[in-house]
TrEMBL record, chain A:
Keywords recorded for this protein, A-Z: Cell membrane, Membrane, NAD, Oxidoreductase, Quinone, Translocase, Transmembrane, Transmembrane helix, Ubiquinone
GO MF annotation terms: NADH dehydrogenase activity; oxidoreductase activity, acting on NAD(P)H, quinone or similar compound as acceptor; quinone binding
Record family assignment: Belongs to the complex I subunit 1 family.
InterPro entries: NADH_UbQ_OxRdtase_su1/FPO, NADH_UbQ_OxRdtase_su1_CS
Taxonomic classification: Bacteria, Pseudomonadati, Pseudomonadota, Alphaproteobacteria, Hyphomicrobiales
Protein name: NADH-quinone oxidoreductase subunit H
Compartmental location: Cell membrane; Membrane
Pfam families: NADHdh (PF00146)
Entry keyword annotation includes NAD: yes
Role summary: NDH-1 shuttles electrons from NADH, via FMN and iron-sulfur (Fe-S) centers, to quinones in the respiratory chain. The immediate electron acceptor for the enzyme in this species is believed to be ubiquinone. Couples the redox reaction to proton translocation (for every two electrons transferred, four hydrogen ions are translocated across the cytoplasmic membrane), and thus conserves the redox energy in a proton gradient. This subunit may bind ubiquinone.
Transmembrane segments: 12-35, 83-102, 108-133, 154-178, 198-219, 256-276, 288-309, 321-341
Organism: Rhizobium deserti
HAMAP family the UniProt entry points to: NDH1_NuoH
Automatic annotation (TrEMBL), chain B:
Matching Pfam families: Oxidored_q3
Location relative to the cell: Cell membrane
Organism: Rhizobium deserti
EC annotation from Swiss-Prot or TrEMBL: 7.1.1.-
UniProt lineage: Bacteria, Pseudomonadati, Pseudomonadota, Alphaproteobacteria, Hyphomicrobiales
Keyword Transmembrane helix tagged: yes
This protein's name: NADH-quinone oxidoreductase subunit J
Enzyme class: translocase
GO molecular function: NADH dehydrogenase (ubiquinone) activity; oxidoreductase activity; quinone binding
Function: NDH-1 shuttles electrons from NADH, via FMN and iron-sulfur (Fe-S) centers, to quinones in the respiratory chain. Couples the redox reaction to proton translocation (for every two electrons transferred, four hydrogen ions are translocated across the cytoplasmic membrane), and thus conserves the redox energy in a proton gradient.
Length: 347, 204
């Protein structure tokens, strides 16, 4: 009994506790990211944004949560009921499951697995299922068109995301996300004889890939200007048309969790994860998690600004950008990176 | 080992049950969704055996790409369910035959390793200890050294298949407007706008 407790029960309790803690923090963070998104959008358009619930509208997301939960879920008569209700669950579960391998600080990770980056890539490529299933099960033309668009879009941009990941892998030599962050403590800056600083992070040597990843991330998460699956001016709300109350909230939650995930992935791959920007005692004293959150927030600010002032792409332009611009560019960058690493012997 | 065994039976049971549902579900879309569940559990089984790279590749390639296309084809087709079900028994002998062949092969492989356990030690490229060499690196060691030509040939075959599919389906329609971005960018006010002085009361 004692060995059972020490080998199975206690690790299970620890793991469940960690996961719950991460989930709660993540959900609160998503609530405020949502608010920030609306506030930034409003500020660009010289509006005030949500400002009624709580001071500066700080409790707006929680009020929205209550509203969604207490509304009546409506299932269309022609819908395929099982798949219709399964789709939001799939989307939110997959979006949250990926966070298990994201390192927030030294050893602050639930599952420190060797193939962490591949896991993130795999699970985020599965997020298309939530959209396809909801689009098909709604039995509505708008929803189905949205699902068709999103599947083509997500599959196209995954290709360039894959190549971007390959370039980072070539520089690091490991699929472990923590190793990728550690690898960025030395780099260009230390080669020039400086102490480790933000000059070592991957975004300087791999700058084109950083941009490609940022834009592909927008497309992968269906953010504006690539929000064709839910283009409200053409498709009402795309694959979410028929959803209401709690299922709608889950689709929304899954979407924002995926956005936040892409932001953290950008931080880990290109901005040095939790590493401080300069080697200075006051800055080193700030915990890594703060740096991580600040960097994620910075990337998300970019996402929110893009949403506020870039007009939506037309569908053929989206496909052109993905297949004719990003794919050749990232492919060439993979070859160049490999050659440079091999010839200079940095790898 | 207890926990691993529990997970093995969980994954195996769900995989077999959903494989059964793939062929017995009435709606073809449900069949594909069950097929995805089978892939998922197969990835879980790979993870249990320590083949983490294969598990993730199974997720990326089969669920993330192949099954999406499957799902699309099935969703877009206008299928008469009743007609589809009518010929099921006709194909049953073929299915049974394939099942028997696969079962026989599995029995040969497993039986061989049970009868002569030393055979697995004599393989030319033994699997390195996972603690020292990660799965991904170990696969790369073999794939890009001893089997690099086969790897390249496989890539060429896929490339030819891809080009073939594009050639077969490409139709260049003449009378549709295409966007030529370099032409749009090259336009200047001088070439695009024609300023005309119009006398009042006369028009053009």
């Amino acid at each position: 009994m004692d060995t059972f407790f020490s080998t199975y029960a206690w690790p299970a309790i620890v793991m469940i506790g960690q996961s719950l803690l991460l989930l709660v923090c993540l959900l609160v963070f998503i609530a405020y990211i949502l608010l920030a998104d609306r506030k930034i959008w409003a500020a660009v358009q010289l509006r005030r944004g949500p400002n009624v619930v709580g001071p500066f509208g700080l409790f707006q997301s929680f009020a929205d949560l209550l509203k969604f939960v207490f509304k009546e879920p409506i299932i269309p008569a022609g819908a395929n009921k099982g798949v219709f209700l399964l789709a939001p669950l799939v989307s939110v579960t997959l979006a949250l499951a990926t966070w298990a391998v994201i390192p927030f600080n030294t050893n602050w990770v639930i599952a420190n697995i060797n193939v962490g980056l591949l896991y993130v890539f795999a699970i985020s490529s599965l997020e298309v299922y939530g959209i396809i299933m909801s689009g098909w099960a709604s039995n509505s033309k708008y929803a189905f068109l949205g699902a068709l668009r999103s599947a083509a879009q997500m599959v196209s941009y995954e290709v360039s995301i894959g190549f971007v990941i390959v370039t980072v892998l070539l520089c690091v030599g490991s699929l472990n996300l923590s190793d990728i962050v550690y690898a960025q403590s030395t780099g260009l800056g230390t080669m020039l004889g400086m102490p480790s600083s933000f000059l070592d992070w991957h975004f300087i040597p791999l700058f084109p890939m950083f941009i490609v990843f940022f834009i592909s991330g927008l497309a992968e998460t269906n953010r504006p200007p690539f929000d064709l699956p839910e283009a409200e001016s053409e498709l009402v709300a795309g694959y979410m048309v028929e959803y209401s109350s709690a299922p709608y909230m889950m689709l929304m939650l899954g979407e924002y969790a995926a956005i936040l995930l892409i932001c953290s992935l950008t931080t880990i791959l290109f901005l040095g994860g939790w590493l401080p920007p300069v080697d200075f005692w006051l800055i080193n004293w700030v915990p890594g998690i703060i740096w991580f959150i600040l960097k994620v927030g910075l990337i998300f600010f970019g996402y929110a600004m893009v949403k506020a002032f870039v007009p939506r792409y037309r569908y053929d332009q989206l496909m052109r950008l993905g297949w004719k611009v990003f794919l050749p560019l990232s492919l060439v960058m993979v070859i160049i990176t490999a050659f440079v690493l091999k010839l200079t012997g940095w790898a | 080992m207890g926990l691993q065994a529990i997970f093995f039976y969980l994954f195996a049971f769900v995989a077999v049950a959903s494989a059964f549902m793939v062929i017995s579900a009435k709606n073809p879309v449900h069949s594909v969704l069950f097929l995805i569940l089978v892939f998922f559990n197969a990835a879980g089984l790979f993870l249990l055996t320590g083949a983490e790279f294969l598990a993730m590749i199974l997720l990326v390639v089969y669920i993330g790409a192949v099954a999406v296309l499957f799902l699309f084809v099935v969703m877009m087709l206008d299928i008469d369910f009743a007609e589809l079900r009518s010929g099921v028994l006709q194909y049953a002998p073929v299915g049974v035959l394939i099942g028997l062949i696969v079962a026989a092969e599995l029995i040969v492989v497993i039986g061989g390793s049970v009868l002569t356990p030393q055979a697995s030690q004599a393989i030319t490229m033994p699997i390195p200890n996972p603690a020292q060499r990660t799965n991904t690196a170990a696969l790369g060691d073999v794939l890009y050294t001893n089997y690099v030509y086969f790897f390249q040939i496989a890539g060429m075959v896929l490339l030819v298949a891809m080009i073939g599919a594009i050639v077969l389906t490409l139709r260049h329609r003449q009378h549709i407007k295409r966007q030529d971005i370099s032409r749009q960018v090259a336009r200047t006010p001088a070439t695009a706008v024609d300023v005309v002085k119009v006398k009042s009361g006369q028009g053009l």
